Amino acid sequence: MNVPVRIHLLRILSSFLLLLAWGCAANPLSFKIENSLPPDRLAYYSDSFDTFREDLWEKSVSIYKDTQMAGFQLADMIYRGGKLVFTTQRDCFSKAALDTKYTLKGDFDIQMDCRFSPIRGLQPMDQVMGLGVFDKDSGETGNQDLVRIVVFRGSGQPNNFLTSTSKNRAGRSPNTKEILDFDGSLRVIRTGRTVSTYYRQKGEAWKRLSAYPVSNADLTFGFTLQNFTPRTNNLKSAVPFTAEFSEFKINAAQDILEEEI
Amino acid sequence: MGIVAKYKIVCIAGSFLLGLVFLLSAPGPAPASECDLAPYFIGKGKSTSDEAKSLQYYQEAVDVCPGYIRPYELIGNIHRNQKQSDLAISYFEKAAELGSQNSKLYYHLARLLFEKGQLEDGLQHINRSLEIRPGYPDALALKSEIQKALDDQGPQIVLYEPSTASLRGMLVVESFAAMIVQGTALDRSGVAEVKINQTDADLDDHGNFVKEIQIRPGENAIAIEATDKIGNTSRLVVNVHGEKYALPALVQTGRYASSQQLYSKSHAVVIGINRYEKWPVLEFAVNDAKEVQKALVATGFDDVTIILDKEATHRRILTELFDTLPRKVGRNDRVLFYFAGHGQTEELTGGGRKGFIIPVDAEVANYSATAISMEQIKSLSGRIAAKHTLYVMDSCYSGLGFNRSAGIDPAASDYLRKLVSMRVVQIITAGGKGEQVQERQGHGIFTTFFLRGIGGAADFDGDRVVTGSELGTYLRPTVSNESRQAQTPMFGRLEGEGEFLFFIGDSR
Q1: Chain B positions with Cβ closer than 8 Å to A
Q2: What is the CATH number of domain A31-258?
Q3: Do B61 and B163 fall into the same domain?
Q4: Which of A75, A204, B248, B274 has the most beta carbons within 10 angstroms of its beta carbon?
């Protein structure tokens, strides 16, 4: 076998190995959280959204500017048939959000089912559904270290996108997907100092969005629906829109630290 | 005015009109509800590590929305951490008053009240915490601490049987006899266990305990030890004196003309229920009870209490059996309890069965709390001093736990004389579990034959005395055949070896 042929074969083999490695990394089931809390303890923190659980969730919203605060109204939060439904208010800055009253310490694997169909047409408002984890001690609300997955349709934009972002890596993830609607599950996994994000449309397999370096700080989980972004100064939100959340599950976590109250 | 000037004026006017149209058509921001901003201030307060700033944000949340619960919890917690207990309590109490469902709020409030010595209030709040979050470990631990502080004494022991008032420490036994020890242990922390003579007694959730023990001639010390759920123990010792029995001198062998010779008094409680409030209505139970009352009077019973239909409530029956009857029954008396109505048998989860009689006001679901268990009925025999007791149940049961010993050999000399002197508690039921009591021609089949039996049909040896065993022996095949095996009466002894006696045609 001559040298060019050997090099060619080596390239093929290395490509195959790379593909194999990528395939493993893309499959979240290959993640094994070591030393996780027992399932019965984790089950306490999972929520099927039959009713509001004051022991688990904090109603806490971030508003980024005075102009937004002047016309702000909380989005409706309604529990309906095992789903938590957020619906924005019209003609105002509107948002609803829940954060956990506990932090996740060490490695963890959490997921949540959600459904969001942004209103079609060139709406003069942002439509953002997001969930993620943040370090609440890293700064004031709206300026904290975070990793989140968002489904959004920007003001005046013709398409919906699914992406994940982190404070430390501004802009869209290289794995941003153009989608029609989202109806499935979103998942956040931390192993060591990396947080990885995944999504799964109903009936499909998990797909990886991205991964981000993070500190070893304990992280709070939160989710939101809002009709504005930090940059928005004014908007015409003539139409309310809705997102449904259900089945929040902590698949694994090394420790959970509850707040004092 | 030049063309340019005119054009400028038109443009300015046009712009003004356009602006006006825009202002009127474009929806401006809706006015914010003040309360909508409360979660914003909560978020701001929680994201700063400066307690003073946090307090300021939480206070703003209170200011914009005084009915919003969460800032009171958070402000209270800051004061708690700053060891300002009174302030913390006042904020926590405000949150509780507004209807907080936060288990930790009630936990912290309970802790602070406990530390201030307000134990009852602390207990109330810790119970609320556990209602919201059952099994909350911190709350359970605090509850235990509060209970220990509140309760440093063992349970109060109330003894029903042996009744020291009625027995006066005297119990007649031959070589040995079974005695029921029964009572209630009361404790605010709950009763964990009751031991009688160092052996576990049966204990229910309400602190009722029961245990059968053996009594011997001479002094018998009965030591009852009750321990509550936090480990406090109390002890009660009752002394019972057992005597060797002696044959009564007045009793003669041979034929007995009347019950007066053998019993000082004859008591009966007769119950019949047709018109149940919640259970299916019956047709002839009341008729049966009335007929039994007449027959008992005719056979020498001088104290017959009849309780029918709406009178036959759970409370009334228990009062009659456990209060009225024990106070009037003497040692040389006989007692008959007759019940015609619904009966029910429950399969116990741990195996075995438990029988109930159903009062007129019993619930259908969860009937056990409003029915009267056969255990309770059986315990009556321990509360009354009667020489002979007979339960006649025109209902079907199982799991009564009686034995089938035949008692004294009828061929023995001084047979009746011996029977009369020995204590006995017997029971006859209309059928077993799962059988249906049959009614015919205005009466239950069982009661029809019961009346015939005590009227003489069960007097197998022709001595004009029908014993409990003779009655059972008569009823079992007769009723079974008459009902075409739909019901087969059961009879047996709950205690003792004597015989309940009916005297044919005996009227005082």
Answers
A1: 26-33, 36-37, 39-40, 42-44, 46-49, 70, 73-74, 76-77, 81, 100-105, 108, 132-133
A2: 2.60.120.200
A3: no
A4: A75
